[in-house]
Amino acid sequence: MLHLNNIKKTFNPDTINEKVALAGVDLHLNEGDFVTIIGGNGAGKSTTLNAIAGVWPVDGGSIVLDGIDVTGLPEHKRAKYLGRVFQDPMTGTAATMQIDENLALAARRGKSRGLGWGIHAKERKRYKELLKILDLGLEDRMTSKVGLLSGGQRQALTLLMATLEHPKLLLLDEHTAALDPKTAAKVLEITDRIIAENNLTAMMVTHNMRDAINHGNRLVMMHEGRVIVDIGAEEKKKLTVEDLLQKFEEVSGEEFANDRMMLS
């Protein structure tokens, strides 16, 4: 479903602020893979997701999505293939619009727009059934403004919007990092269910090692702009945080020293 071939990206080249963000990322996802991505600050995790989404052009390599080379496509032309949820619950929804209106926007993304009535009764019925999946009572609040929702409710809605039209690839960029532990666990539960029920291919960046181990069927560790560890489903089932730390030290030759991830 996804082939990243030797992806490179340097910010501010030939200046005092030059930063090599991606130093030749190679990663291949099969259809239905749910890959969790971990690594220290500046490892290239979110930068890899931005490269896939086309936030800026890469300096080298190729990005092939479901057989389509999207390397040269601008961000808006890749949007129809991708779903994305960001760290900030305020991103990805329109706060002043209703819940059903936000879902309607998501359903129409990448499609031609007409001048008919905004939301038909058939659509509203579909949205109500979809909201029930979240088990947050939002199906009874479809006319509420999204800005009135809690961070967890809003992130769950964003997740539903991102997967409404079954994207070829779902990108989750630390989408539970801004939530309290209980709410984060609920959103991750919803994430697992939506990905499994729709057989989606997904990549989830996380700073939490336990979440990286407990979710998905593959685990990737990045360091200095490269993939240094790629763990498959069978090995992942027996994995512990201590195993991960040991693997990092073996492959990188350094001790893992990211306080945020260690404390998680």
Question: Would you kindly provide a written description of the structure presented here, covering whatever features stand out?
Answer:
This protein has 264 residues and is an alpha/beta fold. It has a single domain, classed as P-loop containing nucleotide triphosphate hydrolases (Rossmann fold), CATH 3.40.50.300. It contains ten helices and ten strands. It has a six-stranded mixed β-sheet, with helices on both faces. It has a four-stranded antiparallel β-sheet with strand order 2-1-4-5, with helices on one face. β7 (169-173), α6 (181-197) and β8 (202-205) form a beta-alpha-beta unit. α3 (99-107) packs parallel to α5 (151-163) and α5 (151-163) runs parallel beside α6 (181-197). The longest helix is centred in the last third of the chain and has 17 residues, at 181-197. The chain starts with a strand and ends with a helix.
